[in-house]
Amino acid sequence: MIKAPYIFLLLLGVFYQINRNFGDSLEDMKRLLPNDLFEISPSIVVVILVRNKAHILPMFLTYFEQLDYPKDRISLWIRSDHNFDNSIEILEAWLQIAQSKYHSVNVEFDNTTQQHQNESSPFDWPQTRFEHVIKLKGEALNYAKKIWADYIFYLDADVLLTSPATLRNLVNLKLPLVAPMLLSESLYSNFWCGMSSTYYYIRTDDYIKIYNVKEEGIFKVMMIHSAVLIDLNYKGAQYLTFDREELRKQQKNDLNWSSTLGPLCRRPYDGPLDDIIVFAMSANCSKIPMFVTNELAFGYILQPLDSTDSLSQDFKQLINIKTNMVHDLDEIKEVNEYLKKYEPTVKKDKMSLDHIYLINLERRPERRRKMLKLFKILGLEVEYFPAIDGKKLDHNKIQEMGIKFMPGYEDPYHHRPMTMGEIGCFLSHFNIWQNIVEKNQGEVLILEDDIRFEPYFKENAKRIIKQARNLKEYDLIYFGRKRLKDESEPPVKGTDNLVHVGYSYWTLGYVLTLKGARKLLDAQPLQNLLPVDEFLPIMFDRHPVKNWSSVYTRRDLIAYSSAPLLLYPSHYTGDVGYISDTEDSVLLNNESSLNNTHFNQAQLKSDRELDFIQMKRENTQSHMKSTAKDEL
């Protein structure tokens, strides 16, 4: 072993060599230091408060453990109490395996009581609960200061940090107060850009820009919560508090100074007993800036529920988040093996339908894998139905199948004939219609493989199916479509979420009855073929091109649409990852068409007038969520 004096002499020799060769360059000095003399990462106390989070804890802990910040520089401060579920059991199982990886672990669990005084539900927040949380957060802050930690990171147990670089990224920003922007099932996140005169949330244009990443960067905001990193070496950190009386005391002592910082700081705090609001005000009134960063896709957050909600509702919210994660990230990290037994699952069913089909090309296994993940999360029992591949079709095969085309048909927007992909798409749906009739299936949901499920899909779909069954009859219900004309779509009498459907494109997902399938087949569409999303509006007599409609004499398909829609495309034209197997393919009369016209991705049918796609989605999501909760 080399003793200390010899190390000192060695370093002196290094510095002498540096001065001799490079002068006083600091970068040169660092470059000649031994590789193992790197800078130690700052120490962090991570504070985790857990209550009734058994349904998310296996995922939360798995993602937390994947953070790439050195674990020997992390001290854990964990508290759990007032649980109805087995949150403590899960935490203990995790700590038994993981705690040795961390610098230190400070844990207190209490199973003696399940409710706070005057608490009506797990999501009710009486004063006693606020007082308890404020006390715990204050104790954690004092603990971090006592052990001379460089940072403290408050992390809620309903946050999923999917980016391993999250903690390292936040520390490297070297900001006094910073949070990673988190996504939810709606527009909820862990920061505020505006605060009312009564200290509550105000949505602003800046908030929307930050949340939707219309602007990317680091932004000064009015509040951050749920995942907050505090630099304890920043001198202003001494003024931070969660305690309302402590804030009032600070304001009284520094009234003249505080009064220069804005209207909310010009009066003693008279707001609610609320840990995150008081904390934000202690920062704002002490001139300590708070920041949120959206430079990375950091992760997701469950939003607070109402006092009338149940734990099952929180689990349904987690299902929404998991579907978003599959859409956004293509996969969900598999939970640690020893936590799998605690992970809740959803029992698969067909939502009271006779069958559910997924149309998917054999050469698109990545889409099929993704959809299978989504079906598992949602609890849907679905049969894979191989699609007809337009790439395998040619003029001879089409003639052999006896297919004839609609006289005079051309794409109404780009004046082109059908593509082989569109022909394959129609035949795929046509084959399923035949299957429905052959197997005498009364009600069937047909799904394509490029869809995005809206929150609470399963609950809302079941409710819409129930509403349709209460009608005298129906043939088809769109779950996802593209509305093309600003025409009247009156609500269906006796229902809450059905409208009479107008001219629409896309066959993302629709429910079809046995009677409806027979009507479609009886029309013999292969004798006057046109794209399937032109054919369906003809059959319910809402197609604007009467020359095409008149070819089909019987146009009595009874069609409705869910309102709001339950499905949207997973990608739009121009998005990263956008692929169209129907439109970006060989044209029918290829030789004659390509001589005069050139088509590119920006001209394809799925880019037509996105006017109606974002039909106040936030408001309609909120309505569907509320209604779904009423059905539980």
Automatic annotation (TrEMBL):
Segments crossing the lipid bilayer: none
Coiled-coil regions listed: none
Xref: InterPro entries: Collagen_mod_GT25, Glyco_trans_25, Nucleotide-diphossugar_trans
Signal peptide limits: 1-23
Family (UniProt): Belongs to the glycosyltransferase 25 family.
UniProt keyword Flavoprotein, yes or no: no
Protein name in UniProt: Glycosyl transferase family 25 domain-containing protein
All copies of domain Glycosyl transferase family, residue ranges: 355-535
Top-rank taxon, per record: Eukaryota
Organism: Glossina brevipalpis
